[in-house]
Amino acid sequence: MNVTLKLPDELVREARHRAVNQSKSLSAWMADLVSRELDSPSNESGASMSLAEAMRVPGMPASFYEKDFALPDRKTTKHREFTLDPDGD
């Protein structure tokens, strides 16, 4: 089936480059892209999953995903200085 889409020129140029890099026509590349999107799991609203949702491990407790953990303050962390001696001395 033929479909006409109106897309920005720069977007089409980039899509063509990606298609060529995969040894595909633009039509084949777009068909694969649409097929992948339609086959991907989605949440209840029909939108694709976020990366965080996709990386969830089944059976893990919610506490596993908590983000409240202390990180060291980079400004107060002391860095060790070292030098590289190519002669091994």
Give a description of the structure.
The mean pLDDT is 78. The radius of gyration is 24 Å and the shape is flat. The chain has helices at residues 9-21, 26-39, 51-54. With 89 residues, the protein is mainly alpha-helical.
Largest sheet: none
Secondary-structure element string = HHH
- Structural class computed from helices and strand pairing: mainly alpha
Helix content: 25-40%
Low-pLDDT regions: none
Query: What would the principal axes of the Cα set say about the shape?
Result: flat
Mean of pLDDT: 78
Rg over CA atoms: 24 Å
Please indicate the percent range of residues in DSSP E strands (runs of 2 or more): under 5%
Relevant terms:
mainly alpha, 35% helix, 89 residues
Report a brief summary of the structure.
The chain has 89 residues and is mainly α. 35% of the residues lie in helices and 0% in strands. The protein has 3 helices and no strands.
Write the layout of secondary structure elements.
Elements: H1 9-21, H2 26-39, H3 51-54
